[in-house]
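Handout, page 2. Input:
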Amino acid sequence: MVVQESPPSRLRHDPIAQARQNWIDIGWADSADGMALVTSITRVQQVVIQSIDELLRPFGLTFARFEVLMLLHFTRTGALPLGKIGERLQVHPASVTNAVDRLEAAGLVHRSPNPTDRRSVLAEISPSGRKTVEAAALELNSQVFANLPLDAHDVNAATAVLREWRAAFGDFDTSGDRAV
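Output:
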């Protein structure tokens, strides 16, 4: 993962560790570890998205727009109804509309009526969108996804634990799961 030079605001001490100790000191020791984990996950998400968005900026993308383009790139036809995009990316319809608006303005997707459902609109990736998302994916692969600050075992273990957590919170249906 690309690690930027230390910004001037870099803290000398871990504020989450301090918050955990504060939780213990006030008498909430039974929830201190959970608070530290949840806060750590939230903070990691923030720093990862910030790093990814910085890498995607030269492509005119944010991570949210990159996800829409990759989803369209991986579909058989290169097109999906906006509602299906939101469902698959698990985001609010307004977020999909906003992302598609910006991608369309940049010439990376175009909208068309859905021939099988007149009530919906399709977003279709353009040739320029395919080129852009492929180049952006190569950048993310080399700078982030294949370059995490964890070894392969820890990456797989963390992914497995977070998958269990997501399933426990009802993020996806596990009834049809096969052993992975």
